[in-house]
Amino acid sequence: MYSNLFVDKVNEIRDNYFNSIEERVADFKNMGKSRNRSLFIELSFCILTANTSAEMGIRTQRYINEGFIDYDLETLRSELRKIKYRFYNKRSEYIVNARFIIPDLKKLLRNRDRYYVREYLVENIKGVGYKEASHFLRNVGIFDFAILDKHIMKLLHNFGFFNDIKIKSGKDYKKYEEIFNSIAYDFGMEPGIFDLYLWKMATGKILK
């Protein structure tokens, strides 16, 4: 069903990096137990990483931290610009406008209908699409969804699973996600965890 090369690469990562990936999974589960403010800081990180590198998102999150909640718009914009974050105008607006959700984040994440939770985030928070919502949910210990960033899309396209490397709509996202999820379950993993294996394969890194 899958090429020997793909299976061998997944198994190689599982053999060599299983413990490191499990540590990251434990981090995500612990994050899901956090207070609303910490959850919002993680949501802000996921908004920031769209169309930029994970490393830049991590550096920015560490630098701004509680400022995602406490800074006014102009201060947040200025601080993002200071550390050379590229999309400082739009993303500062997205984060400030998303603050309405802070008091309800833990309650939202307790909802057992994970698809409802993701749709709520996509529909109600500007700057959050299916990838960003899936990324956030994975980072707080909900592993039901694929995080289809450019690295994953290119990797699975190169292995012949996807016929394109670009996602043009929510419908496209769900189509490719269905394929991704099927592969993940065939390897006995939840999609949000399988993503870590493929991201390691694509980039050589285990981040978040």
TrEMBL record:
Q: SMART domains from the entry? A: ENDO3c
Q: What reaction(s) does this enzyme catalyze?
A: 2'-deoxyribonucleotide-(2'-deoxyribose 5'-phosphate)-2'-deoxyribonucleotide-DNA = a 3'-end 2'-deoxyribonucleotide-(2,3-dehydro-2,3-deoxyribose 5'-phosphate)-DNA + a 5'-end 5'-phospho-2'-deoxyribonucleoside-DNA + H(+)
Enzyme active site: K131, D149
| Pfam families the record matches | Ogg-HhH
Sites annotated Important for guanine/8-oxoguanine distinction: K208
* Keyword entries, A-Z: DNA damage, DNA repair, Glycosidase, Hydrolase, Lyase, Multifunctional enzyme
Show the GO MF annotations: class I DNA-(apurinic or apyrimidinic site) endonuclease activity; hydrolase activity, hydrolyzing N-glycosyl compounds
Q: What is its EC number?
A: 3.2.2.-, 4.2.99.18
Annotated HhH-GPD domain residues:
48-206
**Gene3D superfamilies associated with the record:** Helix-hairpin-Helix base-excision DNA repair enzymes (C-terminal) (1.10.1670.10), Hypothetical protein, domain 2 (1.10.340.30)
Under InterPro entries, the record lists:
DNA_glyclase/AP_lyase_Ogg, DNA_glycosylase, HhH-GPD_domain, HhH_base_excis_C
Can you supply a Gene Ontology BP term from the record? Answer: base-excision repair
Per the record, the similarity remark reads: Belongs to the type-2 OGG1 family.
Role this protein plays: Catalyzes the excision of an oxidatively damaged form of guanine (7,8-dihydro-8-oxoguanine = 8-oxoG) from DNA. Also cleaves the DNA backbone at apurinic/apyrimidinic sites (AP sites).
The protein here is known as: 8-oxoguanine DNA glycosylase/AP lyase
Q: Which organism is it from?
A: Acidiplasma cupricumulans
